[in-house]
Amino acid sequence: MTTTPEAPAAASLMTTLPGHFYTDPDIFRQEQERVFESLWFCAVRAADLGKPGAFRTVQIGRESVLITRSRSGELRAFLNICRHRGARLCTQESGEVRRALQCPYHAWTYDLDGKLIAAPNLVKMPDVDRTAYGLVKVALREWLGYAWVCLADEPPSFEETVIGAAVERLGDAASIERYRTEGLALGKRVTYDVRANWKLIVENFMECYHCATIHPELTDVLPEFADGFAAQYYVGHGASFGEEVSGFTVDGSAGFDRLPEVAEDQDRRYYAITIKPTVFINLVPDHVILHRMFPLAEDRTVVECDWLYAPEIVASGVDLTKSVELFHRVNEQDFEACERTQPAMASRAYRGGGVLVPTEHHIGLFHEWLTGRLT
Hints:
Blueprint: E1 14-15, H1 25-36, E2 41-45, E3 54-60, E4 63-69, E5 75-79, E6 94-96, E7 100-102, E8 109-111, E9 116-118, E10 139-143, E11 146-150, H2 158-170, H3 174-177, E12 185-194, H4 198-206, H5 211-214, H6 216-221, E13 239-240, E14 269-275, E15 279-284, E16 287-297, E17 300-309, H7 311-316, H8 321-341, E18 355-356, H9 363-374
Helix pairs in contact: 4-8
C-alpha cells in the first residue's frame, strides 16, 4: 500500500481541512442541517417576484422553500409542502398564480399568506383550523434587494450574522449601503453548474494567491492582485484600479458613471465580501455583482450570479458586454479550477489536507467557523 510521506513542519504554512470534508456525503448532510438550514440564506432577488402571485422555489439544505409575493405586496416564504399528505406544492422553479396555491395531488388550496382556504369536502370538516393547517412559514428578511430566509425555529440575529459580515469586512455598514443595491436593476444573470464542493468555491473566492496564475484580465485591471493578497485579507481595503485602467471592464475601458452615493474614497476600487455560508458580494463604482450558491451535493454547487446597474443604464439598452465579461471570465476560470481540484479531494495524497500559505491564512478562520458548527 502506498503511503503519503509527511512533510516537515513549516511555520509559514497552515493545514487545511482533510480531503474527506469535500467528498463525504455524511459531512454534507451535517452541513445541510447545521449550516444551510440553520443560518440566513440568500434565496431570491425580490424584484424577480414583481407582482402578487409570483413565486419561486429554491433548494435550501434538504428543504424546498417556496417564496411568493402576497396580495398586500409583501414577500412570504413557506416550506414547499402540502399539509395534507406531503406532496410538493409547486413543482416548477418559478411561475405565477392568480389568487391561490393549489396542490396538484388532492387540490388543497392556500392563499398567498399560506392559509388553507379550500379543499375537497372541507366544509364537511368544520373542526379543521384553516390557519393551523396552513403552509409552514419560514423566516424572511429583505436586504440589498434580496429575500434572505432562515429555516431555523429560532433564527440567529440577521444584524449580527449577515449585515455584521459586511461590517466586519468593510469597517461599517454605510460603506455597502452607499451602493443602494436594493434600487439597482438586473443587467445580466448567469447560472453556473459547478461540479465541486461548495467550500472549494468559498475558499477560492476568499484568496488571490491564484490570481496571477489564472486571472490575467482581472490582474490587468487590479494589478495589486498579482501579488497574491486578496481584498478580503485587509479590513476596509479596496483593491485599486491600475493607473491606465478607466473602468471595471474586460479590457479596462471606461464603464459607466459612478453610482450616485458611492464615496470619493470608494471610487476606482474593488471590494469583495463573503457572507457565510453562500453569498459573495463584489462592489465596484458603477455596478454590483452578487453571487448566490446553492449546494446540491457534496460535489455539485449551482451558482447564480447577478450583475446590477443603475436602472437608467439597464433601461437605456446600452451594451453591457465589456462590463459583464470581466467577472464572467473570472467565474469561469475559478469554477474550472474548483472542478479540477474536486477529484483530488478523494486522493490519498490529500487525506490529511493541504496547506495555506501566509496570504491565505484568513481561510483558516473559515475552516474554524465550519468545524465549530459541525461539532
